[in-house]
User: What shape does this take?
Amino acid sequence: MTEPLVKITDLSLWYEKYRALDCINTEFDSGKCIVICGPSGSGKSSLLRCVNRLEDFQEGDVFFDGQSLRECSDIAALRSNIGMVFQHFELYPHMSVLDNITLAPRWAKKKPKEAAETHAMALLDRVGIANQAKKYPAELSGGQQQRAAIARALALEPKLMLFDEPTSALDPEMIVEVLRVMRDLAQDGMTMLVVTHEMAFAREVSDEIIFMDEGRIVERKATPDFFTNPHSRRAQDFLDRILMKI
Amino acid sequence: MDWAVIPANLPFLMKGLWVSFQLAIFVIVISFPLACVIAVGRVSSRWWIRFPSATFVNAMRSNPLILIVFWFFFLVPLIIGRPVGDFASVMIAFVVFFSAYFTEIIRSGIQSVDRNQIQAGLSTGLTYFQVMRMVVLPQAMRNMMPALVTECIIIFQGTTIAYVVGLREFLNSTFLVTERTIRPVELYLFAALVYFVVCFAGSCLARYLEKKKVRTQ
Assistant: This one.
């Protein structure tokens, strides 16, 4: 039996008095694409951000590749193996797209400039915007910016990709181009944790679905099973609403 | 009016102006990087870094500049047992005082950058200081350029305070010439004109940078 890539044990997170995550226990295997869904405020993003310790959780632990995040002394080195994509892209506005992508490989992974740029160009080609390399983020459309942000995360050659509502800030006609890139990544065997409301994407691409509510994992099922046979009442309600069944 | 006193004493006056410029430039060049470090401490999440930085800033901003100049001119020589020299003591006092003001400008500049930018940088495995240096400060710099230029003008005007310890900067030189020639009206008008030209040019630059900032956003 192989070790799971991410293992979460008794994880709790508070914002002041508010309990955002309530004793989460779960694990994620390599090569799987897992969608995390649930109503807003249910703790989806918080859970995602605990996986690379962008949130300092108070209780429990997260193990990435066997390494405890709580006891990790070089969190930066650990994070450089995990790519993260944000809702609002968070490209660096004062740098060209190419520099955005090569920054971390050069400074966190000490890659030589030429090698980092060659790799960045290959990644930009993969996400379909190689011709935008020299431009600044503000000159790109939202969909292009998010694809550049995905390329930036992939430049780390990560073992795991985290997506935090990657299409929520996009116009409808740009959502598809981002989802296509994500689908291709999943098909190439990338391990992905995706917080999203795109249920069509979840249904087509993901292997498993986690449904969260009030800081807890209410349900975790293989994707086809989740859509046809959601176990909990809350998941059923959520699905009805999000698939706009009236 | 006898304007001839000005060309007659111009070399002496310009030497004074050069001292003023030197003082202002040294102060800016030293206190700015210092302030960058203190400002990063000021926004740190660790209280034992944040607290001393905040204390320093608040202490300096709650004292008149002239008092700090006195400290370094009168008290520090008592402590170290030898005179510091008028230029050095004024310069150190200015660096200490104005780095506190620079710190506040830089702090508000850092806080004008979206916090998610820091998270994005951290998520790629950069350290906090790398994120500050390569992601946050360059963006903050663009936002705070107008305020920084304005502060530089204030520093240049502030150099006149060095007069109290007898440093021969521009205002002091002007004063010495008036003593000798008894032509205060011409000389002080000239001094006003010189300060006006330098500072007005500076504020035009600040306004230009302000406009440019609005345009690039």
The interface with chain B takes residues 52, 54, 76-84, 86, 88, 90-94, 103-104, 107-109, 152-153, 156, 162 of chain A (CB under 8 Å). The first helix of chain A runs from residue 44 to 51. DSSP finds nine helices and ten strands in chain A.
